[in-house]
Amino acid sequence: MTATKQKVIVNKDALISFLADQNMSIIDLASRMGTAPSTVYRSIDDSNPKGVGGETIASMLSALGFEEKDFPKLFIFTNRCI
Questions:
Q1: Measured in whole angstroms, how far is the alpha carbon of residue 16 from the centre of its chain?
Q2: How many CB atoms are located within 10 Å of the residue 49 CB?
Q3: Mean pLDDT value of segment 66-72
Q4: Are strands 75-81 and 4-10 parallel, antiparallel or unpaired?
Q5: Which residues does 27 contact at the CB level (< 8 Å), separation at least 6?
Q6: Long-range contacts made by residues 28-31, C-beta under 8 angstroms, separation at least 24?
Q7: Are 63 and 32 in contact (CB under 8 A)?
Q8: Which of 7, 62, 64, 78 could form an S-S bond across to 51 if both were Cys, CB 3.0 to 4.6 Å?
Q9: pLDDT tens digits, residue range 41-60?
Q10: Contact present, 75 and 6 (Cβ < 8 Å)
Q11: pTM of the entire structure?
């Protein structure tokens, strides 16, 4: 029997669009988040099986000036089989 577990992924198109509107790069975002650019790149990698964790979500929202209520603007819940 295969169970389904929800994970959170970054809405890559929304993030890239927002960054372009703000004239920001992934490197700029990583700097604001206080993390390595590879962390941000990994979070938007479509082949990343893990999704993103709470710490990355919180720091990304904060770095972009978003609040908790803005979560759906950048993140998507998805199901995966485990």
A1: 11
A2: 7
A3: 94
A4: antiparallel
A5: 37
A6: 29/60, 29/63, 29/64
A7: yes
A8: 7
A9: 999 998 877 889 999 999 99
A10: no
A11: 0.84
- Nearest-angstrom CA–CA distance, 4 and 25: 34
Task: Tell me the CA distances in angstroms from 72 to 9, 20, 27, 43, one per residue in order.
Answer: 11, 19, 23, 16
Residue whose pair of structure tokens reads 């988040």 in the numeric block:
33
Tokens 């509107």 belong to 21
Whether pLDDT at 69 is above 60: yes
pLDDT band at 82, cuts 50/70/90? very low
Residue carrying the six token digits 């604001």: 32
For the chain, the residue count is: 82
